[in-house]
Amino acid sequence: MHIVIISSSVRIGRNSHRVALYFKNYITENKLATVEILDLNEYKFPVFDERLRFMKDPSPQILQFTDKIKAADGVIIVTPEYNGGYPAALKNVIDLLYDEWKRKPLALATASAGPFGGAQVTTSLVFTLWKIGFWLVPAMFAVPKVQDSYDENGVPVNKELTDKLAKGFIGELIWCMEAKKRMHE
């Protein structure tokens, strides 16, 4: 099984990327799946004016990103909350693809600098994900005061509690990934 983590913030001084690093480390340390981070800050995609399937000459970078999404058995999106919404960079890549997202098991992790852990971003993002055909797993991972909860390398301040929460969150994603695999056999 292979999991792709989309780290969606492209801001300078971003903190949600710490959560993406944590999940990569957690999944690797516990040998739950192979895992990689697709960091939208590294991709530096332009604003797309069309879906991939209608592009005449997509760049190698777009095709590489698409291939990584296609190869993933499951996806974790780590997103900050910006004024109750999610980053434009995330909307940009969600809208780039279509069939590639269909019935792809997805776990959503939200983060904020405040006390609510990105709870407000959930409403708009879940509607978009449902509309495009993702299979949203029935687990959330909300991180309040993210800047105080993880260091720059993704190490949580309270590792025992964070690992306990991650176990249930990742467990739901893996269950959905395995269920999808069985449906296709």
Q: Which descriptors apply to this entry?
A:
single chain; 185 residues; alpha/beta; Putative flavoprotein; NAD(P)H-dep_reductase; oxidoreductase activity
What sequence of helices (H) and strands (E) makes up the elements? EHEHHEHEHEHH
For the report, how would you describe the main beta sheet?
A: 5 strands, parallel
> Kindly state the mean pLDDT as a whole number?
94
The low-pLDDT segments are none
* Terminal-residue CA separation: 15 Å
Radius of gyration: 16 Å
**What is the CATH class name?**
Alpha Beta
Counting DSSP E segments of at least 2 residues, the number of strands comes to: 5
Q: Please state the overall shape, judged from the principal axes of the Cα atoms.
A: globular
- For the record, the count of structural domains works out to 1
Fraction of residues in β-strands = 15-25%
Number of helices: 7
Task: Explain this structure.
This protein is of the alpha/beta class. It has one domain: Rossmann fold, CATH 3.40.50. Helix content is 44%, strand content 19%. It is built from seven helices and five strands, in the order E-H-E-H-H-E-H-E-H-E-H-H. The chain has a five-stranded parallel beta sheet with strand order 2-1-3-4-5, sandwiched between helices. Helix 4 links the parallel strand 3 and strand 4. The chain is globular and about 50 Å long. It starts with a strand and ends with a helix. The model has no long low-confidence stretch (mean pLDDT 94).
